């Protein structure tokens, strides 16, 4: 019994909390100066071999997901749990004045850590690029269909809004309609859909010397002996307002640095440009994470707890 | 000449009045410095409001706007402290904190900080962002005060003065800490959730905000251990403020991440 109490006393101690906080501060500082999540060869090539070995040994290359961070974080969790349990039990046993602030903060942090852990195991995330009319299947019979995607610009040309208009269906039936923007995701059936990105698509129709039609997308090539012309962009010709295709020239697979802007009706090599269109597709972030309500509740606990602690200290002058 | 430039020169006047007062101790100079300080803060707030109206959004979306807001809040805090403390107000503390506000304003006025009014990009169009940034800077303005009091604690020889500086340090961190926690950590996480679908992503700015939060958490918990009170706690308070500065400036220039627009 004595041993159990000693272990409990160790885990609830303030000294342990302080040691863990100091460790997490120092190690996190180091980790922020080391690029995270890159290939091992990067560290071996860019650091002295001893430093690189230490980075890889202590997994500073992916620090926040490594035992070097997760074990102290786990101990910190145990420390807060023991401390909170002791505080509540001790006050109840000795019928002391009720000061709930620190308990609420500690419980909030415990819930945050549980939420974070649950999220790391259960969270599913994907990115889908959809053109107008395209759909994406989700679990439990859900399906999203992109009805429209538009971009609004400020007068100086910078992007003001990306707007995706979605139809959400379930088992083939209409479920709901959603308009999503950055910072305004759509929520349904445990899913959140975010406006995360966009991509320009290029479609250039060419006719070769034998009259055959070819459809080129970005990166598509037109060969001519040892030279190739690669489609890299479609831009609007300022005076005429017409689209023209932009090709980069490569000889023997090496870039010559030459770039050709070809209008519709003109030719590149032996190829005649029939049409050139560009469009934007919407990049939608699809997230299924059921830890969000728990994390939001945890945050409310922390805020109320902090207000209770420090308003009492400041208003009543209890600052020691 | 912009409102912030006028505020810069008026604050310079306030600092000169404070220096003169530190040398020859006349109440009139305290009064002048207070009036100038208030005037400077008002002008900065006018600049903040006019920019907000022009861009049709709360102007807290770039470095210049953040510096103006941070400087204004720091000045307001010093002003309120001076009013509340009355005759007990510690002049070196007022001077030191005004100097921080002046340094922030100098940086905002310098040519290296762009001052164009640009409406926000889509990721910044969120009122959670406004809460995140404003609360974080209000908290940090209190930490600026605690930074100055901690330095004077370490410099002081008189025990009575040391006690006063220590009390003021604890009080300013006790006010700043919950505001900073709400702003930098919690509201920031909620904004990230709405913008990118996750509360936390170990972005360098996020990590440094957490490092700063841990440092002030350490400070507040050290109060409960007698041996660690006093000098050790004051050093941690100083380190904490230096971390806020690194989070604000250093991360932008030395580390890459999602917060590059700040």
Overall description:
The complex is a heterodimer of chains A (320) and B (262). In chain A, 37% of the residues lie in helices and 37% in strands. Chain A has 7 helices and 14 strands. In chain A, a hairpin with a 2-residue loop joins strand 11 and strand 12. Chain A has 320 residues and is of the alpha+beta class. Chain A is elongated, with a radius of gyration of 30 Å. Among the domains of chain A are: 125-200 and 282-288, no CATH class; 201-278, no CATH class. Chain B is mostly helical. Chain B folds into 2 domains: 1-119; 121-262, no CATH class. Chain B is 77% helix and 0% strand. Chain B has helices spanning 3-24, 27-55, 63-85, 91-109, 127-155, 159-196, 204-222, 231-254. Chain B is flat and about 55 Å long. The chains are: A alpha+beta (320), B mainly alpha (262). At the A-B interface, helix 2, strand 4, strand 7 and helix 7 of A face helix 6 and helix 7 of B.
Give the overall shape of chain B: flat
What structural class do you assign from the helix and strand content of chain A? alpha+beta
Mean pLDDT of chain A: 89
Distance between the termini of chain A: 36 Å
Count of beta strands of chain A? 14
What's the structural domain tally of chain B?
Answer: 2
Run of helices and strands of chain A: HHHHHHEEEEEEEEEEEEEEH
Short description:
The complex is a heterodimer of chains A (320) and B (262). Chain A has 320 residues and is of the alpha+beta class.
Secondary-structure blueprint of this entry?
The complex is a heterodimer of chains A (320) and B (262).
Chain A (H helix, E strand, L loop, with lengths): L1 H11 L1 H19 L7 H7 L2 H9 L9 H27 L7 H22 L1 E7 L4 E3 L4 E12 L5 E12 L2 E8 L5 E3 L2 E17 L5 E4 L4 E4 L2 E10 L6 E9 L2 E10 L3 E2 L2 E18 L3 H24 L5
Antiparallel strand pairs in A: 1-14, 2-3, 3-4, 4-5, 6-7, 7-8, 7-14, 9-10, 10-11, 11-12, 13-14
Helix pairs in contact in A: 1-5, 2-5, 3-4, 5-6, 6-7
Chain B lengths: L2 H22 L2 H29 L7 H23 L5 H19 L17 H29 L3 H38 L7 H19 L8 H24 L8
